[in-house]
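Section 5.1 Outputs to date
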Amino acid sequence: MSYVVRFIRKSRWQHASAPSWLPQGEPTGDCLNDLRTTENKLSVWLIENDPSNLDRVLAAFAATRDSTAPLDYRRVSLGWIQRHRLSLLPTSGDSPDQEANHRWHRDLSQLSATGVAGVQQNQLSRDG
């Protein structure tokens, strides 16, 4: 199954001791910082069916960072994106790997607040 990944900070999504007011299994509102859009677009990376490009995408994104902190991400299936008629457009990424930018970088575009919330709620499990 093909999917897209969005890089996140795991500490915003999973808490060892969640606040008492937070329903079990639900992330805090701070996780929405990881889904910040620009011009109603959310930068994501396409991962092939056989995840053969996953390591290269991870390396491309890691090369844009100033820190060696763990690299965390969330997955959203292409099927979910298509069922909800979200627009997924090829765009140039900003990693040093120009081929990866060209082949696998995408923007989820024309996102409403409901669309962003849906991405947050319907993500697949973290793999990285």
